[in-house]
Structures are given as structure tokens and as C-alpha cells.
């Protein structure tokens, strides 16, 4: 997704702009550009493609100015090209703008501006903002920006620079993240914290409707009416290294290996010292509150949706309440049956996914109680929800979500236990037993991670197949969905997951000699049925790789390859079985020479519909 950076201070702005944009590369982009105020003119350079192309164009001609803005674009209006790349300017190059989001009414605005003589050079929605600024400007930059914001509709984070006002950068936020980093004699602007953490840890996180007036030595935040907003400094506690690869070849592999620590962090301070109850300080729900809830929706996208499917099992099993899991992009348009007795849980790693945010807003409008599970403090979803529980997974940079998924599962499990203990639907002994098993999960993930060689071998053997099938029943099916998504998105192999019982209703027709099938068989309650399904595909000469719990002696009788994960309760085993599937996807992508951390056509954070 698009990235924004801005600098105002005493140093050469372009150095920060290029470094900041590099730190935001993980968000995905197709072109990039910078603009630097050089006094009598504004220097602009843009390039389609990776940042390296832009750096190449800037070689030996880096502008000396100390005020500038930069952008990485992920095309929405208009194809990726030099002309469509940001920054954009008005007719005379007096105003320069970078923008994340979508200006929904740009078409009528553009037609009016053209009719009044403005010349457009790009196909973007963003360019209208610069031309509007040119039209309304009468000498007061801040007033002009406020007037422009009143004319545009949609979602945005915007940064404005003007030739006539070289001592200030202005920025505005609406439904797209924006932070201001506070330095000494210099200040920074970015759409995401990793761009600025090597420069400062003190930030202002802008809220919707706020405008920041950023100068070298001061930052003032006002609302759309012009009133001063009293902002609290948010001190970023991440360590700069946490956003680096830490010795691994790819962020994805680093993040897969970070899972033991990530899930430990998620649990930390949330289990009572005596191991007999769950503490979720973020929620002060009581039995009355939960008795008043008659339906629960879990709403999310992609991997977070898959975590929601597992969450449904947890809540239904432990709390005995009906749970529906919805894709956010479907839920928001299908007139869901929601009222004040409904609890809507949204799950989002980034906390910025546009569909999930819209679903959350719609749920609130319909009167539901809302809870967000997210990894990003201060994200739009975290701020919008009534209650928030953070996964504390640390920054996830690779587009493919791994540690976010396992920490979401941990939190869904802890939430279900918390609800069960509060609603009194679980006995004290059972609660203790499950908490005890939960505490073993970090070490068991480490154990699973240590047995990587057979997975590398499978990946090398089957990495060039064009189709792979994943099968399983119950929670194994939920994990199969996640395994197939991982393989698709980073190795570009066509992968599908099926509930094993569905095979004979159609899919079995695709199972022929040599087709790889990954079969999960860990759910004791449906084990025999799963085994029959595995025999069905094996009888058609598929190459079947089994995933089973340690102690399973049955599966090996039928299959040549079985990957074992440590034994635990069948509710918790998805936290272990997903690990070999993540690794299989990773090594298959490596075998095929794919760009693992930045798969084609995908972005880390999907902030447009
Ligand atoms: O940030 P979110 O959790 O809301 O993102 C949701 C999906 O876009 C995300 O999980 C996506 O499916 C990942 N690329 C999967 O690896």
C-alpha cells in the first residue's frame, strides 16, 4: 500500500525521504517519488518501479533543500507510471501533494477544474487536490488546505508543501494512518512508524479530521474548524532492530521463527499467577454482560479471517454461544442481522484494513458491542472499536502473515477461556488444564520449528507442481485454508483447501496420480473419518503428506511422509500444525525463486476497497 514521508529541518531532506521510503517498502508499491523545496523552485523526481529506479534517477543530482516529501504509490486511479506517481502539483508547480487513500468525488471536481482552465497531467484522483489548492489559495496556506478538505470526499492521509511557504509542511488525516515524529530542530512525517524510528521515538498519531502544521522547531495540531488540539506524545517503544531482518534471509522466515516469542508475549500478564484464570484487563465484562449477548460475529479478511474460523470453534465449544464468521468485504454489504445484543469481534493485524474498518463502523452504527483484536496500537481499528485487545506480535513486515495468525489464535483462545470463566460455562479444573497446555505452546512451536529439513525436501520435490490440495476436518480444515493461502500468495502455486468430507462431492475428480495432497489429521473426534478420506486420495495415487500429532501410529501405515507436531489438546493443535504449512509455503517459494516478502500484486495493508 502507499507510503508517505516528510521532512523539515536543517539537514538534506532527500536523505531522510529515501531512507524512510525504504523502510516502508514492505507495504508494497509500484512507483515512487520525492519533492524537495529548493527555495526558488520545487525539485521533483518520480519513477515507476522499485525505489532503486528512483535512486538511480537521483544519482549525482540530489537536491540540497531541507524541506521535502516523498511517496510510494500502489496504483488505484491510473496505471503505475512516472506521471501517475506522486508527488502531484498544480498548474504552476506552487503546491505539491502526496496522498494515501481515495478521493471519491475526484471526477466531478476534475471536470469542473478542467472547465475553469486547469491542466491535468496524470490520471490520478490526487492531482485534483493540488489544483483545488491553487484555486482557493489567497495567501493563507492553512486556510486554503482547510477549504480543500471541505471540498473533497473519501479517505486520505495528505501532506502539502508550498513554494510560497518554505518553512512549513501541512498534513491531514482521514481514515488513513499518519504520524508526526518529533525531533530537535527537525520534524518528520510518515504513514507508518518504521519510517521514523531510527530518527525519533516521540510521535503524534493524528486522528481523523486533524491537520498538523509541521515546522522545523514546532508542531501544532488543529481540527477542521481551526481549533487547537491538545495532543499527547506517543513514545514508540519498539527497538529499531525489531523492524530489520535480524539475520534471516527474509522477513517471513524471521517472523515464522519469532512465533515462540510472539505467542509468549501475547500471553504475558494475561494468565493469573496460580494458572487458574485468564486476566484480560482490557475487558470488564461480567456474567450479565455475556448473558445479554445472543449472537457473536467474527469479521476479518484473509489470514485474520482464518483465525476467526478457529475462534468460532473456541467460543462455541467453551462458551456455547452461536458464532458466525464473515469476510469483512461480504458482511458490510449484506445487511447483517445485528442489534445491541450482538457482539462483533473484528480481527486485523494492521488495524487498517479498509473492509474490516468499514464492517466495524457498520456494526457500531447498528448498535452492536464491538471488540477489536489487532497488532497495531493506535491503528484506525483500535481507535474505532469499543474494546481492543492487542496481540503484541511486534511489527510484521512480510506480506504473508505468520506470527500475526498464531498470536490471533492465542488471543481468540484466551478470549474464549475468559468468556467461559466469566459466563461460568467451564469448570475450574478444565480451565486449569487448558491454561496449562496453553503455557506449553511457545516451547512446542520451537520444537516444531527445529524439524525443518523434511519440509525443505518436500518443498524441493513438489515446489514445481502447479496444483496442491489441502484437506482436513474440523479445526484441521481451518488450518488447511490458511496453509493453502500461504502457498498461493508467496509461491504462486494454485492451492485449494477442502473439508475432507466434501471431497466426494466434486473435488475428488481432480485427484489423479502425482497430485500433492497435504492431509491434516489431528482432530481426535473425527480421526477415523479423516483417515477414510486420506485412503480415498491415496487410492487415486496422489502424493499425500500427512500432518499428525506425536503418538499417532496409524497414519504412517498408509503414507510415505508424515510430519509430526507435539501433542496437545485438539483445540490448541492449530497453533502447531500451521507451522510446517508456513515453512512449506516459504521453501516452495524459495524453490521457485519468488520474491517471498513482496509477492506480486499484493500489499501488506489493504487500505483501499
Ligand atoms: O491487516 P489485516 O490482518 O486486516 O490483513 C488482512 C489480510 O489482508 C491479510 O491477512 C492477508 O490475507 C495476508 N497477506 C495473508 O498472509
Describe this structure in words.
There is one protein chain. This protein has 18 helices and 24 strands. It has 609 residues and is of the alpha/beta class. The strands form 4 sheets. Strands 3-2-4-1-10-9-11-14 form an 8-stranded antiparallel β-sheet, covered by helices on one side. It has a 6-stranded antiparallel β-sheet with strand order 5-6-7-8-12-13. Helix 11 (354-365) links the parallel strand 17 and strand 18 (369-374). Helix 14 (428-449) packs parallel to helix 18 (574-591). It is globular, with a radius of gyration of 26 Å. The N and C termini lie close together (12 Å). The structure holds 5-amino-5-deoxy-1-O-phosphono-D-mannitol.
What distinguishing features does this structure have?
alpha/beta; 8-stranded antiparallel sheet; globular; binds 5-amino-5-deoxy-1-O-phosphono-D-mannitol
Structural class computed from helices and strand pairing: alpha/beta
Distance between the termini: 12 Å
Neighbour order of strands in the largest sheet: 3-2-4-1-10-9-11-14
* Helix segment tally: 18
Give the topology.
Elements: E1 3-8, H1 13-23, E2 31-37, E3 42-48, H2 51-58, E4 67-73, E5 88-89, E6 95-103, H3 106-115, H4 127-136, H5 141-151, E7 154-162, E8 165-174, E9 179-182, E10 187-190, E11 202-205, E12 211-214, E13 219-222, E14 234-235, H6 251-257, H7 259-267, H8 287-291, E15 295-300, H9 302-319, E16 323-327, H10 328-331, E17 342-348, H11 354-365, E18 369-374, H12 380-384, E19 387-390, H13 403-423, H14 428-449, H15 453-462, E20 467-472, H16 475-491, E21 494-499, E22 516-520, H17 527-539, E23 543-549, E24 561-565, H18 574-591
Parallel strand pairs: 15-16, 15-17, 17-18, 18-19, 20-21, 20-22, 22-23, 23-24
Antiparallel strand pairs: 1-4, 1-10, 2-3, 2-4, 5-6, 6-7, 7-8, 8-12, 9-10, 9-11, 11-14, 12-13
Helix pairs in contact: 4-5, 7-13, 7-14, 9-13, 9-16, 14-18, 15-18, 16-18
The protein binds 5-amino-5-deoxy-1-O-phosphono-D-mannitol.
Amino acid at each position: 500500500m502507499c507510503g508517505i514521508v516528510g521532512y523539515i529541518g536543517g539537514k538534506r531532506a532527500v536523505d531522510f525521504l529515501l531512507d524512510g521510503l525504504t523502510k516502508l517498502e514492505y507495504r508494497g508499491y509500484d512507483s515512487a517519488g520525492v519533492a524537495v523545496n529548493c527555495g526558488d523552485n520545487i525539485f521533483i523526481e518520480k519513477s515507476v518501479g522499485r525505489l532503486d529506479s528512483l535512486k538511480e534517477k537521483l544519482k549525482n543530482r540530489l537536491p540540497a533543500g531541507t524541506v521535502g516529501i516523498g511517496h510510494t504509490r500502489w496504483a488505484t486511479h491510473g496505471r503505475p507510471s512516472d506521471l501517475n506517481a506522486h508527488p502531484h502539483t498544480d498548474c504552476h508547480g506552487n503546491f505539491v501533494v502526496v496522498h494515501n487513500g481515495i478521493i471519491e468525488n475526484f471526477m466531478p471536481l476534475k471536470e469542473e477544474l478542467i472547465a475553469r482552465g486547469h491542466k491535468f497531467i496524470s490520471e490520478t484522483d490526487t492531482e485534483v487536490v493540488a489544483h483545488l489548492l491553487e484555486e482557493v489559495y489567497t495567501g493563507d496556506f492553512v486556510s486554503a488546505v482547510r477549504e480543500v478538505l471541505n471540498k473533497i470526499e473519501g479517505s486520505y492521509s495528505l501532506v502539502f508543501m508550498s513554494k510560497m511557504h518554505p518553512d512549513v509542511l501541512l498534513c491531514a488525516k482521514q481514515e488513513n494512518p499518519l504520524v508526526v515524529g518529533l525531533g530537535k530542530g527537525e520534524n518528520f512525517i510518515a504513514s507508518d512508524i518504521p519510517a521514523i524510528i531510527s530518527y525519533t521515538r516521540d510521535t503524534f498519531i493524528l486522528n481523523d479530521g486533524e491537520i498538523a502544521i509541521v515546522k522545523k522547531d514546532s508542531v501544532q495540531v488543529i481540527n477542521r474548524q481551526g481549533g487547537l488540539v491538545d495532543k499527547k506524545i506517543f513514545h514508540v517503544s519498539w527497538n529499531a532492530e525489531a523492524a530489520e531482518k535480524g539475520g534471516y534471509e527474509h522477513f517471513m522466515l524471521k517472523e515464522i521463527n519469532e512465533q515462540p516469542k510472539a505467542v509468549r508475549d501475547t500471553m504475558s500478564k494475561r494468565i493469573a499467577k496460580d494458572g487458574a484464570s485468564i486476566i484480560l484487563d482490557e475487558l470488564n465484562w461480567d456474567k450479565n454482560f455475556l448473558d445479554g449477548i445472543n449472537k457473536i460475529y467474527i469479521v476479518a479478511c484473509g489470514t485474520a479471517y482464518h483465525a476467526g474460523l478457529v475462534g468460532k470453534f473456541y467460543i462455541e465449544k467453551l462458551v456455547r454461544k452461536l458464532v458466525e464468521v464473515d469476510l469483512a468485504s461480504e458482511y458490510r454489504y449484506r445487511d447483517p442481522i445485528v442489534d445491541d445484543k450482538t457482539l462483533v469481534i473484528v480481527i486485523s493485524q494492521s488495524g487498517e484494513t479498509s473492509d474490516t474498518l468499514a464492517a466495524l463502523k457498520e456494526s457500531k452504527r447498528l448498535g452492536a458491542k464491538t471488540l477489536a483484536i489487532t497488532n497495531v496500537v493506535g491503528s484506525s481499528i483500535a481507535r474505532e472499536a469499543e474494546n481492543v485487545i492487542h496481540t503484541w506480535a511486534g511489527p510484521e513486515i512480510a506480506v504473508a502473515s505468520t506470527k500475526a495468525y498464531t498470536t490471533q489464535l492465542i488471543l481468540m483462545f484466551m478470549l474464549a477461556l475468559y468468556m467461559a470463566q466469566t459466563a461460568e460455562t467451564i469448570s475450574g479444573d478444565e480451565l486449569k488444564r487448558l491454561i496449562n497446555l496453553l503455557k506449553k505452546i511457545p516451547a512446542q512451536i520451537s520444537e516444531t520449528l527445529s524439524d525443518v529439513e523434511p519440509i525443505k525436501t518436500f518443498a524441493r520435490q513438489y515446489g514445481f507442481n502447479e496444483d496442491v490440495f489441502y484437506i482436513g476436518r474440523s479445526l484441521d480444515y481451518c488450518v488447511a485454508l490458511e496453509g493453502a493461502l500461504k502457498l498461493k500468495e508467496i509461491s504462486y502455486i494454485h492451492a485449494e483447501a477442502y473439508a475432507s468430507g466434501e471431497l466426494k462431492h466434486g473435488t475428488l475428480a481432480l485427484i489423479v496420480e502425482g497430485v500433492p495432497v497435504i492431509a491434516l489429521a489431528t482432530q481426535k473426534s473425527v480421526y477415523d473419518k479423516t483417515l477414510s478420506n486420506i485412503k480415498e486420495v491415496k487410492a487415486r495415487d496422489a502424493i499425500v503428506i500427512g500432518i499428525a500429532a506425536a503418538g499417532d501410529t496409524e497414519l504412517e501405515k498408509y503414507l510415505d511422509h508424515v510430519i509430526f507436531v507435539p501433542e496437545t489438546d485438539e483445540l490448541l493443535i492449530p497453533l502447531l500444525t500451521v507451522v510446517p504449512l508456513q515453512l512449506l509455503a516459504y521453501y516452495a517459494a524459495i524453490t521457485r525463486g519468488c520474491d517471498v516478502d513482496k509477492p506480486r500484486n499484493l500489499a501488506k495493508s489493504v487500505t483501499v476497497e
